[in-house]
Write a structure and sequence with these properties.
about 650 residues, alpha+beta, 6-stranded antiparallel beta sheet, 26 strands, about 40% helix, flat, binds 5'-O-[(L-methionyl)-sulphamoyl]adenosine
Length: about 650
């Protein structure tokens, strides 16, 4: 058994519902966890929610809820999302858990006793969005680079953590520990930051300003700064200081974060650990940002991508594959639905899907669906190169997965898929099948192709577990996890000749690009609580939108799409719409209702159904309310 593997995601703030960015990090962690399980390593995978602080208090207020009720509600949204994305974390931590609070108190007290925390008056520039003080140097045009708002000058007495005591130690640690922060660009970023003297960290907030936090054990008038509280989740979740899990997993901790929180993880966290005499984590793995149409995802722009919607439309495995394959871990990536569709069509439907169905169909056509026996004499003289190709692929795959270069790991697998497809073209089994004398060669080709599929199916498992299971079933293999062990994959000729295999299935249907014309990416989060107004348009712009009254004639749930309903409406002519309101309206209550639709929106195919128009609704964080009229009018009446 190799060294254990402990992987963490950031614990997400509960001031917003989960989006594509959160899904990406958590899927990456799931992929890494599944890969290490394949390597027969003991794995612990942690995720959770960050629930204290000013941001949360403000978000709760906006919804008219107490912080306690609010954090329960949003934390649950995260908890519910992960199984939908087939994310199998070992534990979900919340910073409001009493066991976490006890660890925070203990560490604070220890560092205080040691003399690394002191009390002082401070005047500084404070960004309420980030919940931290900024130095002039960090601001861009006097504004917070993240929130683009001017920080406020705040003067108050607070507790400070003497980070400066540990600056030289940290520089040495980063320089002397290979890959401590990776990829290298982020290590360099942290080292560049450490070139200037490190300011001490303000780790308290007076209760007169903020009550929602962990009270300092040495001063009841203050709560703990949210980052000092949050970072400790990585050890409190393991039962620090003497939990079995802590002893086993902490020495091999690997954090995954995006570049936005490099500083707390690359600077505050190792220094906190050092000051508290706790061993330092092993690696900090930093990825870039998903942008949409080249800009940051944001509620005010209205371009926040909802992972569940994409999963419902394109299927979970395709969605997971796209995220892992399209982002070079460490760099920013631009999300577009078109790129997603292209990936599905080329890599999944074409390369993998076609290969799978070609090989299985040939096995049925030429060998009645039975794995053929390879004649040892033919095998010797008839080199296909698939075995050596597979060994090379597994080696590259392992190396890249270990190094958190997931896109490269998949690229290696797809190179092998290419080699397999080429083998079919070169050996032309349909020609071999014509002559009785080449029957043995045909058997060797088909057997080796089936073996190649077995390897591919193992290697795609961390990213696409359901597709791997389907492939495995169609190769006549059982459902044991051991099948995925990397050591099993390294042995060629594991498929037993004589095994009957089921007929092929379509793994990934091609998406018709002519039907797929609109963006379905936006997670609408506007509503009464949201005052963000979109940019001004002219009346001519507005007149381009054809709003009509429509009467719902029929409504039904779309199978396998929890949120979607298929509606038939009358607006002078009959139309079919697909609407994401299934969690808010039952089909029965919709029939007969008059709704408002955008009648001239380009049609889009959702779950295989062509949606010809879009209904209007008020959407806030918790509810969807259909826009209706206060008296009945003729179907098709325009709105102006
Ligand atoms: N609560 C802190 C983390 C504390 S960890 C001890 C926090 N929360 S957050 O909700 O803002 O989550 C930030 C993280 O979400 C990023 O580091 C990244 O993992 C993920 N992402 C959020 N938006 C993202 C993108 N647009 N793209 C990629 N990942 C992003 O910070």
């Amino acid at each position: 058994m190799s060294r254990p593997f402990y992987v963490t995601t950031p614990i997400y703030y509960v001031n917003a519902r989960p989006h594509l960015g959160h899904a990406y990090t958590t899927i990456v962690a799931d992929v890494a966890a599944r890969f290490h399980t394949m390597c027969q390593t003991d794995v612990f995978f942690l995720t959770g929610t960050d629930e204290h602080g000013d941001k949360v208090v403000r978000a709760a207020k906006k919804e008219g809820l107490s912080p306690r009720v609010y954090v329960d509600k949003i934390s649950q949204l995260f908890r519910d999302l992960w199984p939908e994305l087939q994310i199998e974390h070992s534990y979900f931590i919340r910073t409001t858990d009493p066991s976490h609070i006890a660890v925070v108190e203990q560490i604070l007290q220890r560092i205080y006793n040691k003399g690394d925390i002191y009390f002082s008056e401070y005047e500084g520039l404070y960004c309420f969005g980030c919940e931290r003080f900024y130095t002039e140097r960090e601001l861009v045009d006097h504004k917070c680079p993240d929130h683009e708002t001017e920080p406020e000058v705040i003067k108050e007495s607070n507790y400070f953590f003497k980070m400066s005591n540990y600056q030289d130690w940290l520089i040495d640690h980063i320089r002397n520990t290979p890959d401590f922060i990776r990829p290298e660009r982020y290590k360099n970023e942290v080292l560049a930051f450490l070139r200037d003297p490190l300011e001490d960290l303000c780790i308290s907030r007076p209760k007169s300003r903020l009550k929602w936090g962990i009270t300092l054990p040495f001063d009841k008038d203050y709560v703990t700064y949210v980052w000092f509280d949050a970072l400790l989740n990585y050890i409190s979740a393991l039962g620090y200081p003497d939990g079995e899990l802590y002893n086993k997993f902490w020495p091999s901790a690997q954090h995954i974060v995006a570049k936005d929180i490099l500083k707390p993880h690359g600077i505050y966290w190792p220094i906190m650990l050092k000051a508290a005499d706790i061993p330092i984590y092993q690696h900090l793995n930093v990825h870039g940002y998903w942008n949409v149409d080249q800009s940051k995802m944001s509620k005010s722009i209205g371009n926040v991508v909802d992972p569940l919607q994409l999963k419902n439309i394109y299927g979970l495995d395709a969605f997971r594959f796209f995220l892992i394959r399209d982002m070079t871990f460490g760099l920013d990536s631009n999300f577009s639905e078109l790129a997603l569709v292209h990936r599905i069509n080329s890599d999944l439907a074409n390369d993998l899907g076609n290969l799978f169905s070609r090989v299985l169909s040939m096995t049925h056509k030429y060998f009645d669906g039975v794995v053929p026996q390879v004649d040892p004499d033919v095998a010797k003289g008839f080199k296909l190169g698939l075995e050596s190709g597979a060994i090379r692929t597994i080696r590259d795959f392992e190396r890249s997965m270990d190094a958190f270069e997931f896109h490269k790991a998949l690229a290696a697998v797809w190179e092998f898929i290419g080699q397999m497809n080429k083998t079919i073209d070169v050996t032309a089994p349909w020609v071999l099948a014509k002559k009785k004398s080449s029957r043995k060669q045909l058997a060797a080709v088909i057997y080796n192709l089936l073996e190649g599929l077995r390897i591919i199916c193992g290697l795609i498992y961390p990213v696409m577990p359901s597709t791997a299971a389907t492939m495995r079933k169609h190769l006549g293999l059982d459902d044991k996890t051991a099948f995925y062990h990397i050591n099993q994959l390294k042995h060629w000729k594991r498929l037993a000749p004589g095994t009957k295999i089921p007929k092929s299935v379509i793994l990934f249907p091609r998406i018709d690009l002519t039907q797929k014309t609109t963006d379905v990416q936006t997670q609408t989060e506007t509503g009464p609580a949201n005052s963000d107004i979109k940019p001004e348009i002219t009346i001519a712009d507005f007149n381009k939108i054809d709003l009509r009254v429509a009467t719902v004639i029929r409504a039904e749930q779309i199978p396998r799409a929890k949120k979607l309903l298929k509606l038939e409406v009358d607006l002078g002519q009959k139309r079919t719409l697909v609407a994401g309101i299934a969690e808010n309206y039952s089909p029965e209550e919709l029939v007969g209702k008059q709704i408002i639709i955008v009648a001239n929106l380009k049609p889009a195919k959702l779950m295989g159904i062509l949606s010809n128009g879009m209904l209007l609704a008020a959407v806030d964080q918790s509810d969807v309310t259909l826009a209706t009229l206060d008296k009945s009018v003729d179907p098709g009446t325009p709105l102006k």
